[in-house]
Specification:
A hairpin with an 8-residue loop joins strand 4 and strand 5. 30% of the residues are buried. The protein is globular, with a radius of gyration of 23 Å. The chain has ten helices and 15 strands. By secondary structure, the protein is an alpha+beta fold. The strands form five sheets. A five-stranded mixed beta sheet has the order 9-8-7-14-15, with helices on both faces.
């Protein structure tokens, strides 16, 4: 059992076509016949999978909507070769975004009739899966991931990648947003004598501003990196990560705009975040501040729907369950087939 990573290089695609079924036709035959219109690859070079998400052919209605997935054969074969070297057999492949959807569905984290966005943050890429009333509506891959945050620290500190990764994780423990009275930083001066604008700092529970207003409105007295910015002033982790956060928001907003304005779906009411760095405070803060959603929450799969053992591996899962959303989704799909 394996998952194919999010597709930013177009090695796999997901489409939501509406298919007309004539009386006497088999759905499987029609889907394969129509697939070429929606798949930007030679059909001989891909594996195709699909499922009905809306409608049921009847004498009165003959249109259905399906979720159609196509993946390059070389991608699947390369993974099978790796698994073959470990003597593991693969029964099914799944997309990360679909696996995460299944994990959230089986955990009963979805609500009836709501418009939900599932933001799965990977290492080099991420995906946003829009769901309305339990039904998959739209998936978009993002060319942004946790590695972008680490790369920003590497660039600023000139540290090795692993050291920068450790600094990112350590800084998460120190970034604790509090809705108390604002702090204020003293006016500092460059060695050249130029003044840095006095920064008024307000620690808010779930907010971070646009890049152009960050220093003016929301400087944070948090973790200072062991490097100095222009004029000898040390940069906080928030300042270092701000460009990366801005890129993330830009990608997310493009996805929201298409879902809400091109597909004419109702605005997203709630967002669930999962993946490797989903628990990092700046992720949720930035999303809340920049997106017009009622709630942004980190996925928590430890609930009454499951019974877990007390093994060490399960202990890790319980402490950081949002990081294992893909794995849980694959298990969920496997349980359905038993």
């Amino acid at each position: 059992r394996s998952s194919a990573a999010s597709d930013v290089y177009k090695r796999q695609v997901v489409r939501y076509p509406k298919i007309n079924i004539k009386e006497g036709e088999k759905i499987e035959d029609v889907v394969l016949k129509e697939a070429g219109q929606y798949i930007p690859f030679d059909l001989n070079d891909v594996y195709i999978s699909w499922d009905i998400i809306e409608g049921e052919p009847t004498k009165k209605a003959n249109q259905i909507q399906i979720i159609l997935v196509a993946s390059k054969k070389d991608v699947i074969i390369s993974r099978l070769n790796v698994l073959g070297q470990t003597d593991l057999q693969c029964s099914v492949f799944d997309l990360d975004s679909i696996a995460v959807y299944n994990a959230i569905k089986i955990s009963r984290l979805m609500k009836p009739s709501e418009s939900l966005a599932i933001f799965d943050i990977g290492f080099t890429s991420s995906s946003i899966h829009f769901v309305r009333d339990f039904r998959s509506v739209f998936i978009r891959d993002l060319g942004w991931g946790g590695k972008d945050m680490i790369d920003a620290i590497v660039k600023e500190t000139h540290r090795e990648f692993r050291q920068a990764e450790a600094m990112l994780m350590d800084s998460a423990k120190e970034i604790i947003s509090k809705p108390e009275a604002p702090l204020a930083e003293e006016v500092m001066e460059h060695e050249t004598g130029e003044e840095i604008i006095a920064e008024e700092v307000e620690e808010v529970e779930e907010a971070i501003p646009h890049e152009d207003s960050f220093e003016e409105e929301y400087g944070y007295r948090d973790t200072l990196l062991s490097t100095k910015a222009m004029g000898g002033r040390e940069k906080s982790i928030r300042e270092v990560l701000l460009p990366s956060m801005s890129r993330m928001i830009s990608e997310v907003k493009k996805s929201f705009d298409f879902y809400e304005h091109q597909l004419y779906e109702k605005p997203v009411e709630r967002m669930i975040v999962c993946g490797g760095v989903s628990c990092y405070p700046l992720i949720g803060e930035t999303l809340v501040h920049e997106l017009n959603v009622d709630t942004v929450e980190v996925a928590d799969f430890v609930n009454e729907n499951f019974s877990f053992s007390n093994s060490k591996t399960i202990k890790q899962f319980k402490e950081h369950s949002a990081k294992y959303s893909v794995a849980l989704g694959l298990v969920a799909r496997g349980l359905e087939e038993i």
